[in-house]
UniProtKB/TrEMBL annotation:
Residues 1-16 form the signal peptide. It comes from the Eukaryota. GO terms for cellular component: membrane. InterPro entries: ANF_lig-bd_rcpt, Peripla_BP_I. Keywords: Membrane, Signal, Transmembrane, Transmembrane helix. It is found in: Membrane. Transmembrane segments: none annotated. This is Guanylate cyclase. Residues 49-152 form the Receptor ligand binding region domain. The keyword Transmembrane helix applies. The keyword Transmembrane helix applies.
Length: 153
């Protein structure tokens, strides 16, 4: 008798359509951070201002923005050195395929990162003291923006 009920139950399931309930997966935004620790440590040193990045994301998420995204931060200290910036930029853009790079906080190093951004088509956010007018040249640096306006803009 129990076997008959079990077979009836299975046959009843075959006539049903089971609709899977999909839980939406969050997309992870990978953020490369080219930081300085010793260079201008009182103003743009990462230990002084780096915590603002995850705090800003948490604030936006608490207000209902960016809730469908998770964030992963990858840090490299470049100290505004051009060679270190190239190394970090290649690691971020080529090896790790980040979505966006923050920094470096110095103009000459940011130019190097901006050049790599053209090759790999990655967004770069300049922060710190990067107000040189050449960084506003959108034909040369179409993927670079800065939190500080340049003399041209």
């Amino acid at each position: 008798m129990l076997l008959v009920l079990y077979v009836v139950f299975l046959l009843g399931l075959s006539n049903c359509q089971l609709v899977p309930t999909a839980t939406p997966t969050k997309r992870t935004i990978r953020v490369g951070i080219a930081a300085a620790q010793l260079t201008q440590s009182g103003s743009v040193g990462w230990s002084s201002c780096g915590g603002a990045v995850p705090i800003a994301v948490q604030y936006l998420q608490s207000k209902g923005h960016l809730t469908e995204f998770d964030f992963e931060y990858i840090m490299e200290y470049t100290e505004c050195d051009k060679a270190s910036t190239v190394k970090a930029g290649l690691r971020f853009m080529k090896d790790l395929n980040v979505d966006v790079v923050i920094g470096p906080p110095c103009a000459k190093a940011l130019e190097v990162m901006g050049t790599l951004s053209v090759i790999y088509k990655k967004l770069v956010l300049g922060w710190g003291f990067v107000s040189e007018s050449q960084l506003a040249d959108s034909t040369r640096f179409p993927f670079v923006t800065s939190v500080q306006p340049t003399a041209t803009t």
